[in-house]
């Protein structure tokens, strides 16, 4: 739908199920037409209603007196629908009588940071912040993440905002909707403030040296997302050489690869860049820079379990014995590395970055010290950084290590990082197979996909209990996790989709197949479960 330029142009409004736009603690939808079977759900009126819903929620939460106007900062990643949605969000916030501060192209962590910065000259702190992003999803999608100075909003808050938005939208349906220009919009270059804070953090860690990374060659791959700033605004002021960095310019069609540190093509691209440029280190971000990964000078990927091991090693040097909270699909090798080699405690929790962060906060509140919450996806949050999952800050922790190693005469290579993960046992085979639940299958017998999935897990758990070759994990918070044949598997229910992901890690393909066969035998009577991916894997 074209952006309407005057108050007289009234777009046609369709009925909308707002709660379907919820994706855990985010809102996600289709913002651009053109993909078959994916009609636009984040229209301008829907977006405006969501923003007005957030404004109403914020007014209730902050309970300020009438003399002070609340202000909301708005930023976006490189998606092609960003500008249109930013305008609609601004109208929604302004319509509730709040001040709007637009940051333009920004990172998700910077948006949260804007609620903490205290500097009236740049209109900070913001009372609330909205990031317009859909992380690594395709170009036609977009969405929203919301923050206050307490951190990212949780699932219940998002549901509340969407319920308010539905009521505002029904008002549009009843009274008509028109696009009115927002009066109270200001623009600020907040990314300059955020990047200067990152630079200061590295200088401080290196003993206040102006250019602690002088002589280091570090290449950045931003995947045409919002992370291109890291090369020129963070690394270069610290003295690093960044030639060979790639895909730094924002392009919401993502022409080179998906900006996702878990994506094989993305990791191959940054690895190749490191090797071609004989760089000391490579750094890659997702679209909105809340996730990251690295590659050492030999082309070894430092993502997933390796990245968790590396950050854990750094954090445990600073906070000996602390608890590291991770998601559920981390390896057994990582547990033994954290607990036996590093002397920490590994608390393996559930999937979902917000779940992992909230669990670390909960542990601290009951007296168990935790300084790091990190997911295999590359979402990592540190207590010292307000429990914000900031991909750029995570990489700053690595840069600090490089800079301090160099200051103590240990050279300019990435070997200091590689040495930190020495001794991490890694499986020969690691696979994730997705078993889909057919929601139209009669075997559901009127149950929701979630109830059906829970029944599958219950049955698998019971069948494992009587198998002497297999052992259920004594402590487990999600799905059914089982050790056997030198490896392990985890079958769990996806957070949002009718899917049971199955992770298997084993010392050989043969052992992985044995674990797969145990699962296949246990779930075969569930006819609505599509086990084709598993069947293919276990075939001789």
From TrEMBL:
Gene3D superfamilies: Alpha-D-Glucose-1,6-Bisphosphate, subunit A, domain 3, Alpha-D-phosphohexomutase, C-terminal domain. Its EC number is 5.4.2.2. CDD domains: PMM_PGM. The keyword Metal-binding applies. Keywords: Carbohydrate metabolism, Glucose metabolism, Isomerase, Magnesium, Metal-binding, Phosphoprotein. Residues 24-166, 197-299, 304-405 form the Alpha-D-phosphohexomutase alpha/beta/alpha domain. InterPro entries: A-D-PHexomutase_a/b/a-I, A-D-PHexomutase_a/b/a-I/II/III, A-D-PHexomutase_a/b/a-II, A-D-PHexomutase_a/b/a-III, A-D-PHexomutase_C_sf, Alpha-D-phosphohexomutase_SF, Phosphoglucosamine_mutase. Its cofactor is Mg(2+). It comes from the Eukaryota. Pfam families: PGM_PMM_I, PGM_PMM_II, PGM_PMM_III. It catalyses: alpha-D-glucose 1-phosphate = alpha-D-glucose 6-phosphate; O-phospho-L-seryl-[protein] + alpha-D-glucose 1-phosphate = alpha-D-glucose 1,6-bisphosphate + L-seryl-[protein]; alpha-D-glucose 1,6-bisphosphate + L-seryl-[protein] = O-phospho-L-seryl-[protein] + alpha-D-glucose 6-phosphate. PANTHER family: PHOSPHOGLUCOMUTASE (ALPHA-D-GLUCOSE-1,6-BISPHOSPHATE-DEPENDENT) (PTHR42946:SF1), PHOSPHOHEXOSE MUTASE (PTHR42946). Belongs to the phosphohexose mutase family. Monomer. This is phosphoglucomutase (alpha-D-glucose-1,6-bisphosphate-dependent). The gene is LOC121222530.
């Amino acid at each position: 739908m074209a952006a309407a330029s005057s108050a007289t142009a009234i777009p046609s409004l369709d009925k909308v199920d707002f709660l379907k736009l919820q994706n855990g603690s985010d809102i996600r939808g289709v913002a651009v037409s053109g993909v078959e079977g994916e009609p636009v759900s984040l229209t301008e009126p829907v977006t405006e209603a969501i923003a007005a819903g957030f404004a109403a929620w914020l007014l209730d939460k902050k309970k300020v007196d009438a003399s002070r106007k609340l202000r909301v900062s708005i930023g976006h990643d490189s998606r092609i629908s960003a500008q249109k949605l930013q305008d609609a969000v601004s109208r929604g916030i302004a319509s509730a009588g709040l001040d709007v501060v637009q940051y333009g192209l920004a990172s998700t962590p910077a948006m949260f940071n804007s609620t903490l910065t205290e500097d009236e000259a740049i209109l900070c702190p913001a009372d609330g912040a909205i990031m317009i992003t859909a992380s690594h999803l395709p170009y036609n999608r977009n969405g929203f993440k919301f923050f206050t100075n307490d951190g990212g909003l949780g699932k219940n808050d998002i549901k509340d905002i969407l319920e308010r938005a539905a009521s505002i939208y029904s008002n549009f349906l009843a009274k008509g909707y028109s696009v009115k220009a927002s009066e109270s919009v200001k623009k600020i270059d907040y990314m300059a403030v955020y990047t200067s804070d990152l630079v200061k953090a590295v200088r401080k860690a290196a003993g206040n040296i102006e250019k602690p990374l002088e002589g280091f060659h570090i290449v950045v791959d931003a995947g045409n997302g919002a992370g291109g700033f890291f090369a020129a605004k963070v690394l270069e002021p610290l003295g690093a050489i960044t030639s060979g960095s790639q895909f730094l310019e924002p392009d919401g069609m993502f022409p080179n690869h998906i900006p996702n540190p878990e994506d094989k093509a993305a990791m191959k691209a940054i690895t190749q860049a490191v090797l071609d440029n004989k760089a000391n280190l490579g750094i890659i971000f997702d679209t909105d820079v809340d996730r990251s990964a690295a590659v050492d000078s030999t082309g070894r990927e430092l993502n997933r379990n390796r990245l968790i091991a590396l950050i854990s090693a750094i954090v445990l040097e600073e906070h000996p014995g602390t608890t590291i909270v991770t998601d559920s699909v981390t390896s057994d090798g990582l547990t033994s590395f954290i607990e036996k080699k590093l002397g920490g405690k590994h608390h393996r929790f559930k999937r979902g970055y917000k779940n992992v962060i909230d669990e670390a906060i909960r542990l601290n509140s009951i007296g168990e010290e935790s300084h790091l919450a990190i997911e295999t996806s590359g979402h990592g949050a540190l207590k010292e950084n307000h429990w914000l999952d900031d991909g750029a800050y995570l990489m700053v922790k690595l840069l600090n290590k490089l800079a301090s190693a160099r200051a103590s005469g240990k050279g300019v290579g990435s070997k200091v990082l590689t040495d930190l993960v020495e001794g991490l046992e890694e499986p020969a085979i690691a696979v994730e197979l997705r078993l889909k639940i057919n929601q139209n299958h009669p075997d559901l017998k009127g149950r929701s996909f979630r109830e059906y999935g829970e029944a599958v897990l219950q049955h698998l758990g019971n069948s494992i209990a009587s198998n002497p070759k297999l052992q259920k994990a004594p402590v487990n918070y999600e799905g059914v996790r089982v050790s056997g044949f030198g490896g392990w598997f985890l079958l769990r229910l996806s957070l949002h989709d009718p899917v049971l992901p199955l992770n298997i890690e084993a010392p050989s393909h043969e052992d992985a197949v044995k674990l797969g066969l145990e699962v296949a035998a246990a779930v075969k009577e569930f006819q609505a479960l599509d086990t084709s991916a598993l069947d293919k894997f276990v075939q001789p």
